[in-house]
Design goal:
alpha+beta
Length: about 90
Amino acid sequence: MLLDHPDGACAELSVAIGWDPVAWDMHFGAMCSKRLEWLWPLEPSVREEKDGYIRLLAVQQKVGDQPVRYRMLPEAVSAFASLDIKSRGG
């Protein structure tokens, strides 16, 4: 979803897949947390996550009073592309 909607806000991403407008970031963060062994190379005893697990695959940006916007990290886009997972737009 995020590959197809770079710089999307939570409400936009949620509505695009038919979810409640506040659901996307919680589900994306939960998905990342369930895959820590693949996404985070540090040993479990060294991990300290205060900013949420979304940052393992995406950048979060907030400007002023605007909603937080999300964009996949370039290395995540490359990794997905190597698995033949790309945005529908290209």
